[in-house]
Amino acid sequence: MFKLLHILLLKLVDKGYLPDIPNIERYIYATMLAIILHTACVGPQFMRPGYWRFISGVSGEKFPFMFRKLMVPFASQAMTLYPDFIPNLNPQFVKTPEVLQILAEHGKLSGAKF
């Protein structure tokens, strides 16, 4: 997709439909990477396996273990690949009552006050 957009943009610049923007490749690459990262957060099951392996490898195999339970109200299928994963978080750094409640419900937090 990146290469397709790059070639299309170069052709439009050559024909005079668009102005020549210096370093446009960087902007296209950053946009494509942002789309891939967003998809990996919200719906990893919708990604191609190669993209998923790339993102997992770059993150040191930590990206698959994001705390997606908090995204369920916003993206209902965010937890499809890892439905039971709840991280061990230090309650000292947890500020929202919703997160404390989720941790307490799954036995990851004792004595939490809501």
Quick structural gist:
With 114 residues, the chain is an all-alpha fold. Helices cover 45% and strands 0% of the residues.
Helices and strands, with pairings:
Layout: H1 2-14, H2 24-42, H3 49-58, H4 97-105
Question: How would you describe the overall organization of this protein?
Answer:
The chain has helices at 2-14, 24-42, 49-58, 97-105. It is mostly helical. It has a domain at 2-66. The longest helix is centred in the N-terminal third of the chain and has 19 residues, at 24-42. It is elongated and about 60 Å long.
Structural class: mainly alpha
| Number of contiguous helices | 4
Series of secondary-structure elements, N-terminal to C-terminal: HHHH
Biggest sheet layout: none
Number of strands: 0
Descriptive labels:
mainly alpha, single chain
